[in-house]
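From the pipeline queue, job 12 of 40. The input is one protein chain; the requested action is below.

Action: predict structure.
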Amino acid sequence: MSLPRLLRGVEPGRMSYDDHRRVHGELTLAAHGRGHGAASALVAELKRSGLRGRGGGAFPLAAKLEAVRRSRRAPVVVVNATEGEPMSFKDRTLVQALPHLVIDGAICCAAALATDTIVFALDESSGETAAALATALHERPEFAGRLTAPEIVRVPGGYVTGHETSVVNFLNTGTALPTRARPRISERGYNRRPTLMSNAETLAHAALIVRHGSDWFRELGSDDEPGSVLVTLSGAVRCPGVYEVEHGAQLATLIDAAEGQSAPLRAFLFGGYAGGWVDAADATRARLSEAGLRPLSASFGAGVVVALPSSACPVAEVSRVADWMAGESAGQCGPCVNGLAAIADTLAWICDGRPGRDAESELRRFCALVTGRGACAHPDGAARFVSSALAVFAAEIEDHARHGPCDACDRRAVLSTPEHRSPVP
């Protein structure tokens, strides 16, 4: 099957259950049954597919399933569609426009784990998405009898509240703060039960793999990173939006799908606010996968690509995001609270032309100090974002340090920095 796969048949509005079955066919789990052998067959098929998580961590879905299955307690499936990355819209697009594909994936994983308990976690601001999902769930005949109806939970908005331990913590205690992942949620998560948590796109892929098989899934992509991926493309392109491309496709393919760039480009941001910057000239050889972006010191992450126009001020953009990231700290760990604030303050001083001595060296030192520390990966992502900016925008940073703000500093921001939604009361 050619592209699109996940986005096949998508139109404005929510796809109904009847249209979903017309486009994708029936989900025939009955052929697998409900016993241990059937569950093993489902896990084996997903393992052969090589499907990796599409939420940013790229962890194999089958490995997660196997970890949960090792526990003797009744498991839970949690669909994480909180999507706290401000530049990502793919998961809410799926849940809002194609909810039945995500529901199918959750059902497949529940069958593989022989459980009836499914929870959908959405951002608290996603009222329209929650309504679309609730309507879709009411259309499903599975939940009228054999399976318990899934629960929809609205999680407080924030960059770290979508972390898997934050979601579990919120489900258990009402507090959306990350915790140290011991024991792992695969051993003890929601209601102290082993928990499989996966994002919406990953589960949508699983639904199609169960329908069409692992060989079909592997017709696209590479051996290590097979299949297709959803990309949220924004910035200086003619048609920003969510696109489906082959895993490992050239960046040019994505830009062409968006009808080309709308202005001269200075750089690309890959992977969102935990990702990295690449000079526009170097990005011409970029491929949209972890392996393809690694030589450029960037990562694919959750599939975010931002085209930064030459008319924007990269120093102001990076400083604004660094300040936002510091404000999104959960406030639990010193390296995050103090380190990210120090990074943001130093960038602000550089942007204003009052950096003091060796400000750039201090930034590098702060980024090194916060990396690998804290209860979650928030400091690591922020440090990676800033460190890559120091390399790509070295000339602009030096100019601001010497001469202060430029004419572009006050132009409309390209990178979104929503109102601070830190979970700290």
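Job complete. The chain has three domains: 17-217, 228-309, 314-403.
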